[in-house]
C-alpha cells in the first residue's frame, strides 16, 4: 500500500461512478484511501457511494452540497479542496469520475514524488480505444482538449484527470482556485509549475470516454473559451485564433481574383489539424481524418467568438451535472 490519497469530486455521475471507483480501488499497489466528495447528487450517485463504502474500507465518501454551482462559483475546485483537506496522507493524486485507470496508473504517476525528485507530476489523458469507447468526434476534437489518441503518446499537457502533488505544494498554493467553473486545473498547473519541479509521466494517463458529437465538442470548447475570457488568460491564444478567422475570410474574399490565398489557408489549416498526432490518427480511418479537419476549421471561430464573449460579458457557465440539480431556491418555506 502506498501512502497516497486519491481524491475525486462528483455530482450526478451515476452512469460513470462505478467504473471510475472500481478502477481506483484496483490499483496495484493500492492507495491508502480514495476520497470522493459528492456535491449533492440527486441521481443515485451518493447512495451508490454509501453502499460501496461498506464493502471497501479504502473508500471514503463525503457529501458536501457546497460543492455545487448553486453554492460555489467553482464547485469542482471546491470539491477537490474539500477532499484534499480530508485526506490523511502527504501525496495527493487527482482523478476524474468520467475516466477509468489502469492498475499501474497510481504507481507510475506518483513514483517521482515518492522518490523525492519532484513535487508535481502530470500523466495526461487518452481516449478509451476499446470498441465503442470513442466517437468520431472524440477522435476529431481530442488534441484541442489535450487528450491523446494512444496511451503511448507523449504528453506535456495538464489535466486534473491525472495529476499528483505533495500536500505541502497544495497548501502553499492555497488549493485549487474556486472562482472559476472550468479551466481550474490550467490555473492550478500554471502556478504549480512556477513553484515546483514538474515531471511528465508517459505511462500514467487517465482513460477518458467523452462520447462527443460535433455539437457537444463545440459547446465544450466554447465553455472553456468563455472561462478563459472571464479569467483574462490565454490572450495569445485569442490573438492566434482571431488571426486564423481573418485569414479565412480574406482568402474567401480573394477568390474573385485568385485561388492562391485559399490554398495557403487550407495548407495552414491542415497543419493545425494534423501536426500534433498524425501518426496516431491515421489508424482511425478516413472518416476520422475528415472530421478532424472540419473540427479544426471550426475551432478558431468557436474560440475567438466565445473568448471575447467571456471577456466583454458576464455570462454564467453551467454544466451537465449541475443542470440536473433541482432548484431549491424555489421551494416553499419549510421544505428542504
Task: Describe this protein's structure.
Helix content is 46%, strand content 14%. The radius of gyration is 21 Å and the shape is globular. α2 links the parallel β2 and β3. The chain is an alpha/beta fold and 336 residues long. The chain has 2 domains: 173 residues, Spore Coat Polysaccharide Biosynthesis Protein SpsA, Chain A; 105 residues, no CATH class. It is built from 13 helices and 11 strands. The protein has a 7-stranded mixed sheet with strand order 3-2-1-4-9-6-10. Strands 5-11-7-8 form a 4-stranded mixed sheet. α8 runs parallel beside α12 and α9 runs antiparallel to α10.
Outline the secondary-structure elements.
Elements: E1 2-10, H1 17-25, E2 31-38, H2 45-55, E3 59-63, H3 75-86, E4 91-94, E5 99-100, H4 105-114, E6 120-122, E7 125-127, H5 136-141, E8 147-148, E9 163-166, H6 167-173, H7 184-195, E10 198-200, E11 206-208, H8 214-231, H9 235-253, H10 260-274, H11 278-281, H12 286-312, H13 320-323
Parallel strand pairs: 1-2, 1-4, 2-3, 6-10, 7-8, 7-11
Antiparallel strand pairs: 4-9, 5-11, 6-9
Helix pairs in contact: 8-12, 9-10, 9-12, 10-12
CATH architecture of the largest domain: Alpha-Beta Complex
Number of DSSP strands? 11
Strand content: 5-15%
CATH topology of the largest domain: Spore Coat Polysaccharide Biosynthesis Protein SpsA, Chain A
Task: Give the name of the CATH superfamily of the largest domain.
Answer: Spore Coat Polysaccharide Biosynthesis Protein SpsA, Chain A
Proportion in helices: 40-55%
Order of helices and strands: EHEHEHEEHEEHEEHHEEHHHHHH
What would the average pLDDT be, to the nearest integer?
91
Query: Which class of the largest domain in CATH terms?
Result: Alpha Beta
The radius of gyration computed from the alpha-carbon positions, rounded to a whole number of angstroms, is 21 Å
